[in-house]
Amino acid sequence: MATQSERNQATRSALIGAGRALFAERGYAEVSVTELAKRAGVTTGALYHQFASKEGLFKAVYAELVQDVGAQVLKAQESAGEPTLLGDCEAYMAACADPAFNQITIDGPAVIGWDQILDEAQLMIEASLTAARDRGEITDVPIKSLARMLAAALKEAAVMIATAEDATQARAAANESARQLITGLLTALPRGAAAVSSLRPKS
User: Fold this and answer.
1) pLDDT for 146-178, tens place per residue?
2) How many CB atoms lie within 10 A of CB 4?
3) Beta carbons of 86 and 179 less than 8 angstroms apart
4) 82 and 29: one domain?
5) Residues 121 and 184 occupy one common structural domain
6) Model-level pTM?
7) Residue 65 domain boundaries
8) Do 67 and 160 lie in a common domain?
9) What pLDDT does 194 receive?
10) Is the same domain home to 73 and 163?
C-alpha cells in the first residue's frame, strides 16, 4: 500500500504533467483549475492543497522545464566530448526552441516575473561560465554579473524563437548573435573556433 508521502508525490506529478501539457497547448490564461484537475485525474481541492493556486502550479511546471533544459545542456556537453561555452549556449537555445515549450516560455515573464526567470537561468549560466573559466576557455571575468547579463540575453532569445513565424530562421539568427557575443570572452581563438562552427545552422 502506498504511503501518504507517495500519494502526495503521485498527485503532484500528475498535476505538473497536466499543467505542462495544457499550458503548452493553450497558454496559461486559457486553462482553468477545473481543467487541470480533470486532466490530472484529481480534485480541484487536491490542486489547491499541492500548489495553492494555478500560478503556483505554473511555477512548478516552469521549474521542471528549467531542470529539463539544464539536463539537455549537460547531455550535449557529454556528447561533445570537449564542452565549450558556445556549445552550451547552442544546447540551451535548442532546448528552449522545442515547440512543446514555446507557449510556456512566452507566458513565463507575465506569470512568474522577469526577475525570477532570470534568477533560475542565471544559476545554470553561472555553472557554464565557471566551468569555462576553470578549463581556461574564457578570461577571469566577474561570473555573477556576466551570468545575469547572459541570462537576460538568452531568455529574450528563447522568447524571440518561440514567437517567430519562422522558428528555424530565428534560432539561426540567435545562434549567430550568441557567437558574436561570446567570442569576445574566449581566451584563445583556436580553441573557440571549433565551438563557433557548432553554432552555425546545420543543413
Assistant:
1) 999 988 888 888 888 878 888 888 888 988 888
2) 7
3) yes
4) no
5) yes
6) 0.78
7) 61-199
8) yes
9) 43
10) yes
